[in-house]
Amino acid sequence: MSENKRSADAGAYVDQWVKTHGATRDRLLPLLHALQEEFGFVSDGVVPLIAERLNISRADVHGVVTFYPDFRRHPGGRHKVQICRAESCQARGSDAIEALLAEGLKVRLGETRGDGAVSLETVYCLGLCAIGPNALVDGEPVARIDEGGVARIVAQVSA
Amino acid sequence: MSRVFVSADMASVALGADRVAQAFADAGCQVVRTGSRGLFAIEPLVEVETDEGRIGYGPVGPEDVGAVLDGSSKARLGIVDDLPFFVTQQRFTFSRCGVIDPLDLADYAAHGGWQGLDAARAMTPQAVVDAVKASGLRGRGGAGFPTGIKWQTVFDAAGPTKYIVCNADEGDSGTFADRMLMEGDPFCLIEGMAIAGHAVGAAHGYVYIRSEYPYAVRTMQAAIALCSPRLAPFTIEVRVGAGAYVCGEETALLDSIEGKRGQVRAKPPLPALQGLFGRPTVINNVLSLAAVPFILAEGAEAYGAVGFGRSRGTIPVQLAGNVRNGGLYEIGFGLTLGELVHDIGGGTASGRPVRAVQVGGPLGAYIPPSQFDLPFDYEAFAAAGALIGHAGITVFDDTADMARMARFAMEFCAAESCGKCTPCRIGSTRGIEVMDRIIAARDEAAAMPAPTGGYLDAALYSRSPQRIDHGAAAQTELLRDLCDTMKFGSLCALGGFTPFPVLSALDHFPEDFGAVAPSPQAAE
Question: Residue B55 and residue B75: Cα distance in Å, rounded?
């Protein structure tokens, strides 16, 4: 899909969305979540249109998109692995698991692999603190990750 | 046909509960998906309904279906309610969690649901506020501010439009009570919000849930849709966070709902007077609001009868990290830390000695075993330079490097700072550098990691390295000075409380910071 086509689709999506859900400023986060759910990321190209529809400045929209870690401005990997690195997981050895995952997936923490197959992201606490180390793999929770668990995650995203 | 109960809580699912539930369904059982009972060592847990009660089996896998159904399974635990971990609890808020189908209105009503709301709506708003005051309930989000006083302020505030906001974005590591309640008994929180609406005269409420809790988001949305006729005219909307920890700070959360960057507001004005969209707003934590139905249904005296000193009622303690019996344990205030960690938690999962526990999330102090006689009470913790926070206890064994944990506290603050005030935004980054130097000095490696000329290094080590005394003693003094600035100069608890984990680690474990450990006599 070309960039222009994608921007046009996103624009049409925004127009439709504000018709159903309203165009007040407090709708900005729900709209960004919806856009990201639909397209995988919030492209810079759609920012001016959002600003116009919600009657706020482009800087306001840009500021919000860049403030929240959940919003991506570029496409992510086809698979998403989010590893928790908060204290409770650290107390259960998540440091070593983090390194093993990065090695196994051949991607650095916080980055998307060159072939676009997988993004490895960090998350601070999934609320599964007694059964760490934990991760979300394509949105599904995985607990008590050990070496075998890393291998299963690697196999899952390589399939 | 047997009726079996399997948790659909995110933690249970992470341990394989979905596959277990499917296996029982395939075997012809009627499977009821509940929330979690709260003891993860026995998850995935299956409960089989019998004449004697619900018999638990756990942990079980899909291959155990036959043995569980004919009663021969070695994982048989007996009546779940009678297990020592559960029988000693005082479950006021979590009485239904793990027991009922979270989205079954009839089940909720059959287990005492809506009694609090019905009682409240039969009372004047002022009488409801008075009941909450009389119960002694204090905000469970960490600060411990009396909930009734907050409600009174909003009640007294003028204006036709007021809001109820539930803060379900307090994502402290080591805490999961909010998540478990929203997944296991969402109507309880909704009922608490409706009672708050009646009490202060608000018609609309928001639940701001962190995006890291996708199961809780789904369950709350479904629950609100199911019970909206019961709530009317009160309405509730779910808002989903976007990965910013600082939005758990109440004013940042309000800005986020308004569609802005989640930046902290200066106080005053208090949110109770000028909160969401500038209107008077009750903003309470999940557990505070979820405690309210019990108070209205059973009476303020029943709630206030348990507790310790000025900390009344129950607290859902969360045992996390390197702990054998990790889970949720609701009990009246006053148990000692040692009882919680050793008697209930069973010590570390690794079997090694406990080195420290962190109470209250990433901004909570590290407490050594020598202080395990500390009672769980807001005032006692404050006096010891610690906080209860969200009542999560993260256990570390003796392999923990406390200087690394102090560095992590600074790193976390730097990653999550909203950027509005300087002590937090800049102080946290300076803190990482100082900790790096202390760790380097301790390890007797190079005096400091040599700048490699990268952008980050240039920013981090912008001051001429030769001018800095890299010794552990000088750097430790600098660290204390920096923590002082952050503690008193930050706008909110993120920068203001980061010194708690840092300084407590330094004070209790100076040997990890390259200093001489105090002799046992000196510590007395």
Answer: 11
Each residue's pLDDT tens digit, B11-52? 999 999 999 999 999 999 999 999 999 999 999 999 999 999
CATH code, domain with B78: 3.40.30.10
Confirm if A156 and A84 have CB atoms less than 8 A apart: no
Do residue B173 and residue A87 have CB atoms under 8 angstroms apart?
yes
Task: Name the token pair of B361.
Answer: 């999330």
Residue B123 near residue B346 (C-beta atoms within 8 A): no
Residue with tokens 């004047």: B124
> What is the percent of chain A with per-residue pLDDT over 70, rounded to a whole number?
96
Asked whether residue B167 falls in the same domain as residue B223, the answer is: yes
**Sheet bearing B54-57, strands edge to edge:** B30-34, B3-7, B46-49, B54-57, B76-79
B299: confidence class by pLDDT, cuts 50, 70, 90 = very high
B304, B334, B357 — which closes off a domain? B304
Say whether A124 and B416 touch across the interface (CB within 8 A).
Answer: yes
* Contacts with B184 (C-beta within 8 Å, 6 or more apart), sequence order: B7, B9, B34, B35, B36, B94, B96, B97, B98, B102
B173 with A29: Cβ contact below 8 A? no
B293 and B318 in a single domain? The answer is no
To the nearest whole Å, the CA of B153 is away from the closest chain A CA by 25
Look-up of token digits 């029988």 = B87
- The fold of the A3-67 domain, in CATH, is Arc Repressor Mutant, subunit A (1.10.10)
Q: Which domain holds residue B228?
A: 105-304
Instruction: Assess if residue B492 is contained within a domain.
Output: yes
Mean predicted confidence (pLDDT) in B94-116: 98
Substitution target from B212, B221, B263, B323 for chain A, most A beta carbons within 10 A: B212
The answer on B114 and B262 residing in a single domain is yes
Same domain assignment for residues B474 and B432: yes
C-alpha–C-alpha distance, residues B356 and B369, integer Å: 6
Which DSSP string corresponds to B454-466? -HHHHHHT-S-GG
Tally of domains within chain B? 4
Query: Which of the listed CATH numbers 3.40.30.10, 3.90.1150.10, 1.10.10.10, 1.10.405.10 matches domain A79-158?
Result: 3.40.30.10
Let me know: does A116 contact A75? Beta carbons within 8 Å.
yes
How many Å apart are CA B292 and CA B196, to the nearest integer? 8
Residues within 8 A of A (CB atoms), B 128-157 only: none
